[in-house]
Amino acid sequence: MRQDDTIAAVASPAGTGAVALLRVSGRDALAVALKVWRGGELHPRRAVLGEVCDASGKGIDSVLATFFKGPASFTGEDTVEITCHGGMLVTQRVLEALLRNGARAAEPGEFTQRAFLNGKLDLTQAEAVMDVIAAQTDMALRAAQRQLDGSLGRQVTALRDELLEALAHVEAYIDFPEEDISPDTGAVLRGKIAAVKTGVQRMLSTADEGRILREGARTVLAGLPNAGKSSLLNKLLGFERAIVSDVPGTTRDTIEEIINLRGVPLRLVDTAGLREVDNSIEREGVARTRRMVETSDLVLEIVDASQPPAERVTLPEESGTKHLLVLNKADLGVHPSWEGRGGVEISCLTGQGMDSLTDEMLRVLAGTGQGFTGMEAAVNARHKACLEHAAAALQAGLQELDAGTAPEFVALDLREALASLGEVAGHTDTEDLLGVIFSRFCIGK
Fold it and tell me: For the chain: N or C, fewer Cβ within 10 A?
């Protein structure tokens, strides 16, 4: 992407609506807009009513235009935003007029990339723009907004500043080897590095929460036939999505739906009952169920609690899948043999125990006694990879410091950790990295 030209795109979603927004950004943004503009003078940060005209001077649409003088704009450049009527044809005609008069079509994410390159956003904030757009729940939206406000970037910057101070101390010793590091000074240095490592690990602890808030927790409903898996899916969804029948094997394929569970998105997957079958179609459904279990975040094992335990679902222990036993049909009475086995008693028929099930699902998913807080900076997969690299480098530096290794090797590890932390917020960005990140954006953003 060239950064010295003027770009234009439709910034609102495709389709028909009341209004549509077009954005023009670059050093010639105002000049391009004025070539198609008929109306009052465009003053910074003031919406003006006018008309966009084609090459012959014929009016295309009555619009509102707002001029933002750089650097006081989203991109940091001169920007003009045009609000026209939301028909697909009229929107396209306004965009064509802008493109014919000196602007080029923006690439996906190019406006946000320019905001990053012009210092208006760090890389974590730029990524948060897409997270805000894609948020499916209030909690996911709040987490994205905190990141957009710079919470994650500030945390990383603070850790980098602490690490820079420690690295400067080591570099000074390399430059002036005659100045021995006293035991007290060495302990302080080690403490600073260890503190940075603790901060990195604290941020890493939010990775699972971040992934779940962005993508949804894959929650598989598994169990024997007729245990109530489809009934529970319908109960959680609030409508009849799956067919419920007393006939074993009714569900033969997976059914997936997304729900908002107190702000946490869950991808509920109803599966075929786990049993030995001769029917090839149902056998494939059982195989798919087992694959779903292996890749899930949480397995709800549904059992008929009114009957004594016969056989149980076999879960792949090596997968580390979180598991919750759900004792369904509690309205019929729970068989005494289920006592002491844990689990949550519910009734899909009467709704008994559904609040308790929700509490327990969120607790198990979060892995704590408090459930999802949504208050910490929830890192994404790219952040996680950078932070893991930084933590490993910091651990190596600590080990070398403890072993009395030459300070040059300690400095190398600290520089590596510093570079990894810098990559989180984009302080050591590369063109390839930016291309991967901004390729996920929609055109106009």
Answer: N
For the chain, counts of helices (H) and of strands (E): 14, 13
Tell whether 151 is covered by a domain: yes
240-270 confidence digits (pLDDT tens): 765 454 544 444 456 788 888 888 888 888 8
Asked if the structure places residue 347 within a domain, the reply is yes
Name the amino acid, one letter, at 287. Answer: A
- Look up the domain containing 422 and give its range: 127-206+379-426
User: What tens digit of pLDDT does each residue of 72-87 get?
Assistant: 999 999 999 999 999 9
Q: For the chain, how many structural domains are there in total?
A: 3
Residue with tokens 């603070």: 158
Tell me: do 240 and 356 sit in the same domain. Answer: yes
Pairing of strands 104-105, 79-86: unpaired
* The pLDDT value given to residue 252: 45
Q: pLDDT band at 1, cuts 50/70/90?
A: low
The answer to whether residue 360 is domain-embedded is yes
Determine contact, residues 272/288, Cβ cutoff 8 Å. Answer: yes
Report residue 408 CA to chain centroid gap. 38
Name the residue among 370, 223, 388, 211 with its Cα closest to residue 297: 211
Residue 15 to residue 320: CA distance in whole angstroms: 44
User: Are 234 and 343 contained in the same domain?
Assistant: yes
Residue with the bigger pLDDT between 293 and 33: it is 33
Per the CB < 8 A criterion, the answer to whether 10 and 444 are in contact is yes
How many Å apart are CA 317 and CA 294, to the nearest integer?
9
Does 385 fall in a domain? yes
Longest Cα–Cα distance of the chain, Å, equals 86
Same domain, 326 and 356: yes
CA distances from 365 to 135, 208, 261, 321, 342 (A): 19, 9, 12, 10, 17
Query: What is the Cα–Cα distance from 34 to 42, expressed in whole angstroms?
Result: 9
Among 86, 115, 144, residue at a domain's last position: 115
| CATH code where residue 153 lies | 1.20.120.430
Residue 386 contacts residue 433 (beta carbons within 8 Å)? no
Tens-digit pLDDT profile for residues 356-396 = 999 998 888 876 444 555 545 568 888 999 999 999 999 99
Best mean pLDDT range from 192-196, 271-275, 433-437: 192-196
Asked if pLDDT for residue 2 goes beyond 90, the answer is no
- Preceding peptide of 71 cis, ω within 30°: yes
Answer yes or no: are the C-beta atoms of 217 and 140 closer than 8 Å: no
